[in-house]
Specification:
With about 150 residues, this protein is α/β, with parallel strands linked by helices. Helix content is about 40%, strand content about 15%. The chain has 5 helices and 5 strands, in the order E-H-E-H-H-E-H-H-E-E. The protein binds zinc ion (ZN).
Length: about 150
């Protein structure tokens, strides 16, 4: 028997977190979400879990599928904030992004930075007034994206 906490149906999530499917990074993403205040015992965000979140938003065919899900969740729950969580090395990015496999750590970080920026722009244009946050995690720590050159 699992330890079940009753669900408070009157509560509406106000944030949507987009994680990579790679479960090894879930704990890091959840911890960061708590640090940044978008997840807590009282603040329970929605989540979309997809391989390579920034890539999947930016790439045309997967973006066409994902954007309606995001639109639907924002409408359903009135979410006002979206956080995108990338990580490296990401197997999905390795298989699908030109130059990623051959790149060193700095190169991978730069590729994620470009994809996260592009994903942020797509979401900002698609969903006016929604606060978009982007995050990148390495195997040992969260990367400060502000240190990347524009
Ligand atoms: Zn991944």
């Amino acid at each position: 028997m699992s330890d079940y906490h009753p669900v408070e149906l009157g509560y509406m999530p106000d944030a949507l977190l987009m994680y990579c499917s790679d479960g090894r990074f879930f704990d890091a993403h959840e911890s960061s979400a708590e640090t940044h205040g978008v997840k807590s015992e009282d603040r329970l965000p929605d989540r979309i879990v997809i391989p390579g979140p920034s890539y999947s938003i930016v790439e045309e065919s997967s973006g066409r599928v994902i954007l309606p899900y995001i639109r639907g969740l924002l409408k359903l729950h009135g979410c006002t904030q979206i956080s995108i969580y990338d990580h490296f090395p990401c197997g999905w990015m390795t298989e699908n992004t030109e130059g990623y496999r051959e790149s060193d750590e700095a190169g991978k970080i730069a590729i994620h930075g470009r994809h996260l920026k592009a994903a942020e722009e797509i979401l900002s244009q698609s969903f006016k007034g929604i606060d978009i946050q982007t995050h990148l995690f390495g195997p040992k720590e969260e990367i400060d994206l502000s240190r990347l050159a524009a």
